[in-house]
Amino acid sequence: MIADGVEDEEKWLSAGIAGLQQNAFYMHRALDSNNLKDALKYSAQMLSELRTSRLSPHKYYELYMRAFDELRKLELFFKEETSRGCSIVELYELVQHAGNILPRLYLLCTVGSVYIKSKEAPAKDVLKDLVEMCRGIQHPLRGLFLRSYLSQVSRDKLPDIGSEYEGDADTVMDAVEFVLQNFTEMNKLWVRMQHQGPTREKEKREKERSELRDLVGKNLHVLSQIEGVDLEMYKEIVLPRVLEQVVNCKDELAQYYLMDCIIQVFPDEYHLQTLETLLNACPQLQPSVDVKTVLARLMERLSNYAASGAEVLPEFFQVEAFAKLNNAIGKVIEAQENMPIAGVVTLYASLLTFTLQVHPDRLDYIDQILGACVKKLSGKEKLDDRQATKQIVALLSAPLEKYKDIDTALKLLNYPRVMEYLNARTNKEMANVIIQNIMKNKTCISTAEKVDALFELIKGLIRDLDEDLHDELDEEDFKEEQNSVARLIQMLHSDDPEEMSKIIHTVRKHILTGGRKRLPFTVPPLIFSSLKLVRRLEGQDESVSGNEASTTPKKIFQIVTQIIESLSSIPVPELALGLYLQCAEAANDCDLEPVAYEFFTQAYILYEEEITDSKAQVICIHLIIGTLQRMHVFGVENRDALTHKATGYSAKLLKKPDQCRAVYACSHLFWLDEHDRIRDGERVLLCLKRALRIANAVQQMATATRGSGGSVVLFIEILNKYLYFYEKGVSQITVESIQDLIELIRSEMNGDNASSDPAADAFLASTLRYIQFQKDKGGAVGERYELIKV
């Protein structure tokens, strides 16, 4: 049925175009021969094609545009006729004898255009006559297009100020009256279109009506372009008349479109000065009209106007714009009880943006808006509506973007209350926005009170909310979120040690609620922040008392120990061991030997009891050796105990190559240049010899299992350690031992069971070049190297 209707409509359109073109052809022939009588006859027959009621608005428009093009040519002919002596007044009378009213009125408008240009009669009289005559067409579609044609031909002939058609003192009023009258009649016709045809096709008709909206809206655009329409006239005449028509038409589509038109076409300063009038119309609109979007666009325009320069802001204060907008929003929400929550939040988000632009110093206004949101959200479940949550994120983000300072947001009492209504996913999203804002603006949060408020705001990232149980988060996203929290913790700082200590306590309180998955991300930055504080407190007198007692290094180390112990429930022993070693180094810098020893003890316990993976053991033993090497605080007894343990762990690693490397690394524990009391050449040599024995064992195992010698890389690494200590002046490392090792390496590489190893060849060549380099350099070191024969 629909397909048949479309086909029929195409046939009717084709027939209409054919008839129009045929008559246009005869009209052109008459025009060419200057035959006015035939020109009028065929033009009237051509325009009769527009009398059809069979076409949809879209198809009718196609037919109308073809007629419009022909009427332009006819208008030029009429103009030429008047220049040849034909009376325009007689011509104006003559076209009124056309048989049908629709062609008659199109011809009348066309001649009327030439009549006004001739200036033989005041423009206002001709325009008044035309707009009254057009009442003769009451068919909605035909009338709408006729009046659109009238608007089109008259728009450059209005008796405006400065126009060539300007008349007496009230000339602007005549122009305004003409446009307003045409607008009113067009809007009535447009609204009546919804009642043409069966009810079942109402949706289709509304779509067709929507396509025609610009025909009506152009009148408002013409009004806005009239030079003589100043603020006074707009306020007293234009706006009240337009709004009267908008409210009285009681049509959802027309009301929404025309309100939007008013906002878009007239100047911002006019809107500001007539704000109350415009806002009072909103609650009078039909309940189904999307008032929130209308108001949001109005506030957006006013916000942009306020942003254009500080000189316009006094106008906003003078008209009390905030109070009026706030009151209007309240009335609209009250009038539309079923307005979705997304709409409510959109309105408040727009009002907030406006307020931030006009009253950035009035935090009470901003908190008032957030409070109104809370009131509307109260009694409801957590928001799951995507549009509503998107608007709330926009609402909460606006103050951050404006002030670029989380401190300001923390002063808003209703800010966290709004966040309470977000679901877990959106809460995290908003928390991320807050953290990114802090990072971007490098905001320093310097009091424990603010830190506590901030962590309450971002609790969606700090701990599991109930919904999380059913919301599996992508692993990569989770890591990114927690890394953001870690970066935030690093930015918390106070120059006052006492306050910084409170901040550490506050952060600890929050992150310990984070659960097993979060602690490995959030504990390390807190530990490092604590160690920064410890280093600031280095050398502080331990006898201090009173409030400052909690900020001594020992007290901080106690907190740090408790924080690291919280990782035991996860467990992540490698991470905990690394943190203990970092703390030991900090205690070393503070000359706190018992504390440093305790941290090492805890690290050793973790190594022995928790770390069973062979690769992890290798990494951890090298961490232990590297940290222990840098320690200077230990006495002989404690250092011996710790180094003995470290060498023992090294020798017990699973893989022989790992054993070898760990053992020769231990040699550095017995010789430190910067400490005269840690220079034990015998034990250095002992470590290196033990490493050699292990390397030999690796070689023998390779020969026994593969039938060929293994890589000599371990021997070359040990050779480099020999050269290092020889250069440092360790007397136990002799030239003979170095030369013997070089010979051993060469014999292994050239032996019958040797396998090709380019990496080992390059490593040895590089080592021998280094020896030659030191010889060539000369000096005391060069003299020592001269003794080595390679």
TrEMBL record:
Per its UniProt record, what SUPFAM superfamilies does this chain match?
A: ARM repeat
Keywords, sorted A to Z: Cytoplasm, Endosome, Golgi apparatus, Membrane, Protein transport, Transport
Source gene?
A: LOC105178177
Record function comment:
Plays a role in vesicular protein sorting.
User: GO CC terms for this protein?
Assistant: cytosol; endosome membrane; Golgi apparatus; late endosome; retromer, cargo-selective complex
- State the Pfam families in the record: Vps35
User: Any one Gene Ontology biological process term?
Assistant: intracellular protein transport
- The UniProt entry's coiled-coil ranges are none
What is the protein's name according to its record?
Answer: Vacuolar protein sorting-associated protein 35
How does this protein sit in the membrane?
Peripheral membrane protein
Localization (cell): Cytoplasm; Endosome membrane; Golgi apparatus, trans-Golgi network membrane; Prevacuolar compartment membrane
Cite the InterPro entries for this sequence.
ARM-type_fold, Vps35, Vps35_C
Family per UniProt?
Answer: Belongs to the VPS35 family.
